[in-house]
Amino acid sequence: MIAIIDYDAGNLRSVEKALNFLGEETAVTRDAETILGADGIILPGVGAFGVAMEKLRQYGLTDVIHRAVEKEIPFLGICLGLQLLFERSDESPKACGLGICKGEILRIPDCEGLKIPHMGWNSLEYDHPGRLFKGIPEGSYVYFVHSYYLKAADETIVTASAGYGTKIHASVEQGNVFACQFHPEKSGQTGLSILKNFIGIAKGGC
Q: What burial class does residue 104 get, using C-beta atoms within 10 Å of its C-beta: 0-12 exposed, 13-18 middle, 19+ buried?
């Protein structure tokens, strides 16, 4: 079973629908016992960094997430869920992130001809081998919706990048913690393959 953390952020149901399409049992929940007993955990979300961190604290989920990571339960952050795993964001300068991974979330720089938010399909370049991308060709397209991007402090955890006015660290892998700035649940067959790979990891595969 994959637990999808419910902290009042958007996009929970589309992630649930994609996993169910793949035949995986899910629980959209904020119950600590359910989350910590899951095979894998997903932190999705769209919205503002500071508001999201306040919601996670309000529901007692920051401690649960840290415990899950310590237990090495496979964990996947999606979009805002990726950003929250890091230390800080330009979007909410006074808010501290979860700090599970080192790095910061920066605003996409203004660039002539590029619209912000970055909304649409973009190809991936693989920086390092990543288990989420097993069997998925480099250059595959995925769907982004964001105005802020990750700059990881340790680039060895970056598995995939994309270009949009700057180099965007689009996916990371740190132990059993995975994250994608893009939306696999909205990325067609490529996205479903990424989620299928995560399910495989959660079920004890490589």
A: middle
